[in-house]
Amino acid sequence: MNVVCIGSGYVGSVTGAAFAALGHQTTVIDIDQAKVEMLNAKRSPIYEPGLDILIAKTIGNTLFASTSYQAVYDADVVFIGVGTPEKADGSADLTYIRRAAASIAKHLNPHRFTVIVNKSTVPVGTADLVSSIIEEESLLEAELDFAVISNPEFLREGYAVEDVFFPDRVVIGTENERARAAMRTLYHNLIERAGYDAICRDLPFTANLHSPAAVYFETDTKSAEMIKYASNAFLAVKISYINEVARLSEALGANVLDVAKGIGLDSRIGEKFLQVSSGWSGSCFPKDTAEFLATSQKYGSELSTVKAAVESNLKMHLFVVEKIQRQLKTLNGKHIGILGLTFKPNTDDARKTQATVIIEKLLELGAHISVHDPQGMPMFRALNKNLAVRYCDSPLDVAHAADALILLTHWQEYQTLDWRQVSRKMRSSYVLDTRNVLCRKQLEELGLLCEGLGIGVTDRKASGHAQAQVGSVRL
Ligand code: UDX
């Protein structure tokens, strides 16, 4: 098929490269000339493992990039994958969506049925909005000449390439039969995993051809739009919940690693998304929970669980500061090192990260802050120009004369750090591991006092890794 993806950010570039790899003639359109030039030079416009490889394989063959909307004229399917930033009141800013819709309208072919797909995360009812903009601007008739549908994207940053080829589900929201037929054709190779041998050969996937196939789920447009928000909000609630359980475990003397394991063994709950952290953040959860909540309040049906999860998440960020303060007492003049600025590993994305909230608070309390992140420093620096922090070239540099270190993002590089060297460089010895990934026993042998989050036990469970003997205990 002829496919167009508007936007070359996380959604547009990954979707475009994936459909190109699946054999469709795909054009990624972006108004930013620099991003288009990067794509044409076989480079990914974003940091995303595997995307460079995918682009290099497809660009010039089945993948094309352009600043012009011309390719819309021959397109069977046009994906809208532009940004939907958060407005001050929490609702989504649809400026870029409106602009993309107007531009698509000007280039639609009146003699061809075109499916326009909202792939960006957009509030319920946005397909109707896009449809009315296109009708007004093109004088074509919705549902007859074109249809606007919803096909939300569930990919995770850092695993976007894997997620796009091995999704749990593909959700298609439309009641238009021609649009449904077009989307079935478009997704055929993905659902059937046709050509996957070649695709998988060069890519670092953990999923494989034996993993369960994606469920192809068709529904109406509004339900599809809602599924995206309801999914992300559910995951946010799940993390906030385990983080609260972590705080209570710590107070009561339980080990949240074992508690999470024990809970997750119930197949109705599942083990995923029960990892304790200093809170969830990033470019999706904060924005999506805010929009979902704002909508629910606007329509008199407040999502009180989501509201509580958002409030609890901020408490979790500040719990880190509390723990540091409890250990160092006054923070005035103390040197604190931060390892990790991105909202999770394997991304350069430092938008809406808890590092900002935590650093702001520590600075307010008079601490001196040094920071390091393997990928996230340029974006963090650009977004936080007002923060007086010292940017370091290495984690060891962060450790130099530090009174405390906080591991915020569990980059592999920090887990395999030479902690003996760290110990030698620090002025004092406190390490706060907010992801519970370090081996506390080993660090203690090196003279460091390492604490995790939610670990209220001291003796036999000092190793820092999940302890429960699941499945290996003979009864
Ligand atoms: C999320 C959704 O997972 C994805 O389906 C959607 O398309 C976009 O939003 P992403 O923002 O890339 O993806 O990050 P994700 O891996 O889901 O993590 C979100 C946040 O939750 C991160 O800050 C992460 O560190 C945190 N998290 C995740 C936890 O604190 N504990 C967990 O158990 C899982």
Question: What would you say this structure looks like, in words?
Answer:
The protein has 475 residues and is of the alpha/beta class. The chain folds into 2 domains: 2-219, NAD(P)-binding Rossmann-like Domain (Rossmann fold); 234-468, NAD(P)-binding Rossmann-like Domain (Rossmann fold), CATH 3.40.50.720. It has 18 helices and 14 strands. The protein has helices at residues 10-21, 33-40, 51-58, 95-107, 126-138, 160-165, 177-192, 196-201, 221-252, 256-264, 285-298, 304-328, 354-364, 377-383, 395-399, 412-415, 419-425, 440-445, and strands spanning 2-6, 25-29, 63-66, 77-80, 114-118, 146-150, 169-173, 215-219, 335-339, 368-372, 390-391, 404-407, 430-433, 449-451. The strands form 3 sheets. Strands 3-2-1-4-5-6 form a 6-stranded parallel beta sheet, sandwiched between helices. Strands 11-10-9-12-13-14 form a 6-stranded parallel beta sheet. Strands 7-8 form a two-stranded parallel ribbon. Mean pLDDT is 94; it is low at 460-464 and 466-472. The structure holds uridine-5'-diphosphate-xylopyranose. Uridine-5'-diphosphate-xylopyranose binds next to helix 9.
